[in-house]
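Dear support,

I submitted the protein below through the web form. The confirmation email said the job was done, but the results page showed an empty box. After a refresh the structure appeared. I'm attaching both so you can tell me whether what I see now is the final result or a partial one.
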Amino acid sequence: MVSAHWYIGATAVTAMPLPRTIHDFYGFPPALFDVQYPAPGLPELAEEASDVVHPTWVGADLDSWGIDHGTWSVLTHAFPAADIPVVQLSINAFRPMDFHLQLGARLAPLRERGVLIVASGNVVHNLRGVNPRMLDEGFDWAQRFDEAAKAVMLDEPTEAVRLDGHRDFGLAVPTPDHFIPLLYLAGLAGATETRPDVLVDGYAYGSLSMTAYTVGVSCPSVGSPAGAPTLPDDVPADSANI
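What the results page shows now:
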């Protein structure tokens, strides 16, 4: 699992047998802090991931991290029983875009061994631009960038690394942490010569894109999404880390 919320100055994988559930946010309803996702870890997969991306150095995190909300917010819906082992890969904040694309490509052999690779983030993620009245809408700049990313991902996914040259990149991606997970999927698609498919798309609050992709995975249709909920008046500021 590549989560936007493990964005640190190193490349590392969780290697503990029982990762803790991390609530890396504040100011939200108590129900979110009550969520526990007690999936086991898989130390041997951490070692395997380190080997498959060699010579890139990958550290083994034995106790500092766990399963953050970028991971459990997805997996509680996909695998609610929490009975499938979870290993997280950090996003190295000091590395350029090309590094993440290439690292995603190097992870491809793990899929042949039955490992599901999931990247959790947002193509457009500008919390300072959130407009609570635009529940399921996107600003013009958000739509332009999201559509440009979609065109690249569906045609030449490895070119996603060049999206930082798009005129709306600065608004759509004010910080790179939520965008970079897309590059891991793009690298994976390039390495396997597989064109991604759109799993779900749409916008929330004007400045968030909910577009998600699959690579070589067929998913059943779930119909129309429910849409974004109405935000409370005391919605946390962008520093709340959502």
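Response: this is the final, complete result; the empty box was a page-load delay. The radius of gyration is 17 Å.
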